[in-house]
Amino acid sequence: MECQKEEEIEIDLLQGIVALWRRKWLIAAVIVFTTCCGWLFTLLYPSVNNYEATASIYTLAKSYDSDVTVSAITSEMNLATQTLTNYATVLTSNKFLEKVVVAMEGEYSLSAAQLQRMVSSTSASDTVMYISVSSSDPDLSIALANKVTEEFVKQMNTITQNDSIQILDSANSVGVTRNNRRIVMMFFAIGFLGTVGTILIVELFFPQLRAVSQCVREDSSEILGIVPDFK
Q1: Residues 90, 96: contact at Cβ < 8 Å?
Q2: Nearest Cα to 182, choosing from 19, 35, 7?
Q3: pTM of the model
């Protein structure tokens, strides 16, 4: 019984593949149509490019007096490293970003909520972290990336009660993310997945008789005959 069910599943999957192959030109036509719609959409409603500026910070190995033990140095360095790693969420917290907004008051009119959607971070290692800001204005992205980085370093050094965390590189250039390409690819995916999904659902889940073998029951009853339907 189990073998028979597995065979039926394989037959259904094969029918789905055959159905997709039979309708390959329909799939291609729908994909071309939806992709052209996406391209036309970007012409009628042009999107603004996003400019991302990135600064980096790191855990600094300080110089110590000769009477300071190695264990004390190691302990302080570990504390700074753990702070940089564990407190990365502070970067996008509303409380921290409110401090950034206050610090740049008069320069840019942004709220903490707006800034939160623009800021992100990635860690290259336990000792290096990249802070990025993305916006539609390249100069704004660079200025905000540097300001957020400066405030974050101050906040982290306050937590660790030392200056072990420092700025490695300030943001001085931007990378461009073109949204138009994403929109066209989204329309392409909608056309492809929508057409393939519709064909498979109709082929596999709608009760249609496509072969005589589908009339055979699980108890191996034989078919005595077929009555044709003439119209």
Answers
A1: yes
A2: 35
A3: 0.53
Q: 27: left (phi > 0), else alpha (psi -120 to 50), else beta?
A: alpha
Q: Which residue has the higher pLDDT, 226 or 4?
A: 226
Nearest residue to 120 (alpha-carbon basis) of 139, 133, 101, 136: 133
Helix 179-205 / helix 24-44 crossing angle, nearest 10 deg: 150
Which residue type sits at 190?
I
Assign 98 to helix, strand or coil: helix
pLDDT per residue as tens digits for the range 138-182 = 888 898 999 999 988 888 888 777 777 788 888 888 877 666 777
* Dist CA 63 CA 66 (whole Å): 9
Strand boundaries in 14-164, DSSP class E: 50-59, 119-123, 128-135
Contacts of 92 (CB under 8 A, 6+ apart): 116, 119, 120, 121
Tell me if 94 sits within 8 A of 115, measured CB to CB.
no
User: Is-contact 114 96, C-beta < 8 A?
Assistant: no
Question: Long-range contacts made by residues 120-126, C-beta under 8 angstroms, separation at least 24?
Answer: 120/92, 121/88, 121/91, 121/92, 123/85, 123/88, 124/56, 126/59, 126/81, 126/84, 126/85
